[in-house]
Amino acid sequence: MRRALLRLVFAVALPALLVTVWWVASAGSTDVYWPPLRTIVEAFPDVWTAERLRGDVLPSALRLAGGYALAAVVGVALGTAIGSYRRVRAVCEPVLEFLRAVPPPVLVPVIMLFAGIGDTMKVTVIAAGCVWPVLLNTVEGVRAVDPVMAETARSYGITGAARLRNLVLRSASPQIFAGLRQALSIGIILMVISEMFAASNGLGFTIVQFQRGFAIPDMWTGILVLGLLGFLLSVVFQWVERRVLGWYHGLRASARRSP
Amino acid sequence: MLDVRGLKKVYEGSGRRVEAVRDLTFAVGAGELVCLVGPSGCGKTTLLKCVGGLLAPTGGEVLLEGRKVSGPPPGMAFVFQEYGRSLFPWMRVGENVGLPLRQKGLSRARRGELVRDALGSVGLADAVRAYPWQLSGGMQQRVAIARALAYEPRVLLMDEPFAAVDAQTRADLEDLVRGLWRERGITILFVTHDIDEAVYLGERVIVLSASPTVVREQLKVDLPVERDQLHTRVDPRFAELRTHVYEQIQAAKKGVVAS
Ligand SMILES: Nc1ncnc2c1ncn2[C@@H]1O[C@H](COP(=O)(O)OP(=O)(O)OP(=O)(O)O)[C@@H](O)[C@H]1O
Ligand SMILES: [Mg+2]
């Protein structure tokens, strides 16, 4: 109980400090672009009404969810295929390295060309950016399946789908999750950027609208919402990860105790 | 039951050619407990993997009940030398033991029964819900043995299963294997580099030469079926047998041709 409390204090201390610094430093500001935090906070409830949450935050979140899910499924599936077969890997590796090196935001204008400016484009952009870390990490994870475990599975007749489910994907899951985590931050960035280019709603669109209309405190509230969204998603992600990878953290902790 | 004829295995790869096993011929009768001893690196693991259908021999063949082994045959279970890496760390002990049974298509009730039985017979009945990495090395190896037992194999292949456990646990595990062998009438091929262990456990000891490996000698262990750690090990006959095997191994290391 005391330890949990202490952890909470540690977790909250730095954000609290930063917010205080921001609050104090901006308190008397008359700069239009740099309004006092107090003004921003006061504007917040007026800007982010239930209607706005439904009209802008929800579409953004749905695009992100769609693109991210697509990237996760495609990344894990392709990554497993590439990681499992040496030949496929030899063929794909150079192409993958190239594609990975392309900064994802560059994809937006390109994808706009053939996917238009609708939701399809945004979901595609998010998926196209998120897929790489998932894919490459899955390849590494699948390649690293322990040979003794692989032989164990084989000797007990665990092959095909059962092998994939019980051995390959489970064994690669720590790397897959590392990829998914990277993909999450990329996904949020791409969500915003794709909405800044061409959209009629969404978080990115709203923030740009505020900025163009010189509603600077409102723009800042949008940035706060983005930050909060990112934070919320990361908390959810961590919760899921702890459930799925509980074994892995336990294994690591026990390996540290007795090397 | 098990026939090894003219078995030869050559590893090729990365410019190195290793003739691990040159020419091995021996047979194991149904319900027999045979120990294989030989100097380190003489190809014991290689031999066992060929027998278990995990490696394709370069020459010769392995017959199980008259049929040629070309992949892991059902009804055969393998206990690996690297016990720590042969249990899946993402599964609890019970799931680890039960997985091969699920693959066999047994009903849930029957699986539960077999898992409980097998864990009970290695003295780990209350570890069902633990993860492998929460157990000591000796306990992990017992889980691996329980997994093999639950599989209800007709042939059990064990590769230096006790090499990494302490002396006391080792003695217990040896008695466990002998007990199970007598109870269940399974055929066991047991690899070890420990001469005492081979003589104590086996009904017959097969001594392998150093690489390039051939069968150097086959020795019937004419000790009573009823054995125990205290009395058997001080039996004069035990001393004679172990001295004999010891001399054979020493000669094998020096490369002297068997007399
Ligand atoms: N996958 C492999 N590729 C190439 N050479 C191998 C491979 N596995 C084993 N060898 C070689 O084959 C020989 C026999 O190895 P093996 O593991 O069968 O010996 P072992 O008798 O089990 O040894 P130990 O008692 O140390 O377990 C060794 O010289 C080893 O270097
Ligand atoms: Mg070995």
TrEMBL record, chain A:
<keyword id="KW-1133">Transmembrane helix</keyword>
<dbReference type="GO" id="GO:0005886">
    <property type="term" value="C:plasma membrane"/>
</dbReference>
<keyword id="KW-1003">Cell membrane</keyword>
<feature type="transmembrane region" description="Helical">
    <location>
        <begin position="220"/>
        <end position="240"/>
    </location>
</feature>
<keyword id="KW-0813">Transport</keyword>
<keyword id="KW-0812">Transmembrane</keyword>
<dbReference type="InterPro" id="IPR000515">
    <property type="entry name" value="MetI-like"/>
</dbReference>
<dbReference type="Pfam" id="PF00528">
    <property type="entry name" value="BPD_transp_1"/>
</dbReference>
<dbReference type="GO" id="GO:0055085">
    <property type="term" value="P:transmembrane transport"/>
</dbReference>
<feature type="transmembrane region" description="Helical">
    <location>
        <begin position="65"/>
        <end position="85"/>
    </location>
</feature>
<comment type="similarity">
    <text>Belongs to the binding-protein-dependent transport system permease family.</text>
</comment>
<feature type="transmembrane region" description="Helical">
    <location>
        <begin position="106"/>
        <end position="135"/>
    </location>
</feature>
<protein>
    <submittedName>
        <fullName>Putative aliphatic sulfonates transport permease protein SsuC</fullName>
    </submittedName>
</protein>
<dbReference type="InterPro" id="IPR035906">
    <property type="entry name" value="MetI-like_sf"/>
</dbReference>
<feature type="domain" description="ABC transmembrane type-1">
    <location>
        <begin position="57"/>
        <end position="241"/>
    </location>
</feature>
<feature type="transmembrane region" description="Helical">
    <location>
        <begin position="183"/>
        <end position="208"/>
    </location>
</feature>
<keyword id="KW-0472">Membrane</keyword>
UniProtKB/TrEMBL annotation, chain B:
<dbReference type="InterPro" id="IPR003439">
    <property type="entry name" value="ABC_transporter-like_ATP-bd"/>
</dbReference>
<dbReference type="InterPro" id="IPR027417">
    <property type="entry name" value="P-loop_NTPase"/>
</dbReference>
<dbReference type="InterPro" id="IPR050166">
    <property type="entry name" value="ABC_transporter_ATP-bind"/>
</dbReference>
<dbReference type="GO" id="GO:0005524">
    <property type="term" value="F:ATP binding"/>
</dbReference>
<keyword id="KW-0813">Transport</keyword>
<keyword id="KW-0547">Nucleotide-binding</keyword>
<protein>
    <submittedName>
        <fullName>Putative ABC transporter ATP-binding protein</fullName>
    </submittedName>
</protein>
<dbReference type="GO" id="GO:0016887">
    <property type="term" value="F:ATP hydrolysis activity"/>
</dbReference>
<feature type="domain" description="ABC transporter">
    <location>
        <begin position="2"/>
        <end position="235"/>
    </location>
</feature>
<dbReference type="InterPro" id="IPR003593">
    <property type="entry name" value="AAA+_ATPase"/>
</dbReference>
<dbReference type="Pfam" id="PF00005">
    <property type="entry name" value="ABC_tran"/>
</dbReference>
<keyword id="KW-0067">ATP-binding</keyword>
<dbReference type="InterPro" id="IPR017871">
    <property type="entry name" value="ABC_transporter-like_CS"/>
</dbReference>
